[in-house]
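_Backbone structure tokens_
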Amino acid sequence: MESIGQFVPLILIFVIMYFLLIRPQQKKMKDHQAMVSALRRGDQVVTQGGLIGKVSKVKDETEIEVELAEGVKVRVVKATIAQVVNKTEPAAES
């Protein structure tokens, strides 16, 4: 019975660490994944390297083409997009 009492503080520490560190990190990863999967042509994005550009083409599930300046296009891995600055509106249906 006394040995169980010694493990209670360790269990409490793990529970506190889960709610303060692990759970928020998982939520942040889920939000980032949702943002990346919603990228489409015309969105203005910032890469983790600090480059700001406009999405000119969504190549596949892992790669996009970003136009940094007039006529300067680079291929970027979707996972390296840090944030979406301006979101484009979907085309209106006629």
Q: What stands out?
A: The beta strands are 44-47, 52-58, 63-69, 72-77, 81-86. The first helix runs from residue 2 to 37.
